[in-house]
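Q&A FORM
Asked by: J.P.
Topic: structure of YheO protein

PROVIDED:
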Amino acid sequence: HDDGSEGRFGYLTKTKDGRILKSSTMYIRDDTGRIAYLLGINQDITEFVLMHRLLDSLVNTGQEDAGSVEKITTSVSELLDDLLLDVERLVGKPGPLMN
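REPLIED BY: S.T.
REPLY: Here is the structure written out as tokens.
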């Protein structure tokens, strides 16, 4: 099946011995536009993937985004303000509109 594209780029493959490759395949066409050859380029990224996993395990706290990072409050007033904002987010209404 020839869909007219130029190839596939940046997909992951794995070797028989478990190495992880970032692969790209470019289609080389003849004068009629049919695919005559394939040019494949594979980059072994196994060490990068392992490093990424290691760094992620050190940095990841299980919190999805920076919005879930807890703020350290320094006063009761600041704590109450933060609690009210949390309630407003939870309920979906500003404090003055709650009854």
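FOLLOW-UP: The CA atoms of residues 35 and 48 lie 33 Å apart.
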